[in-house]
Amino acid sequence: MHSPNLDGSTHINIYSKASTELGRFLTNFALSSITIEDGNFKSIEGYWYWLGTHNEQLRTLYGFKAKQFGKSLTRVIKLTEDVFRKKIQEACWIKLHSSQKYLTLFKNSSLPFTHYYVFGTKVHDAGYEWLIYMWEYYRTYIKNGYKF
Q1: Domain ranges across the chain
Q2: What is the pLDDT of residues 100-122, one digit of tens each?
Q3: Which CATH superfamily is domain 4-143 in?
Q4: In 10 A of CB 31, how many CB atoms?
Q5: What is the DSSP letter of 57?
């Protein structure tokens, strides 16, 4: 497990309370308006829960409020895991390209990405390793000649 006091030195934690600006931007909680095939959303977190509920309030929520509200809803839309991941990956790609500043920070970064939560002195792995692989893949793709 990574040490939170090394966030930004040995790794980039993708977390709303991360030490790095890039880590705070890449988190699904970040306020980052996106327009995708399913419409407009204020965050990936809102979109994440919208995919299972289609509750329109989720379009405007971000941060913990999006998660808290989304978790309180009954999931009524059943997507396969592959379709769900593809939609989230596409939304993250669009989010990444929504800001030249963050796209440049992303391209110029080299520390490995990770995703963990910090509660007081306790560190908890957040899971969802596929998101870490996605961000690493996107960075490699961009560094290897993709033009933006």
Answers
A1: 4-143
A2: 999 999 999 999 999 999 998 89
A3: YbiA-like (1.10.357.40)
A4: 13
A5: G
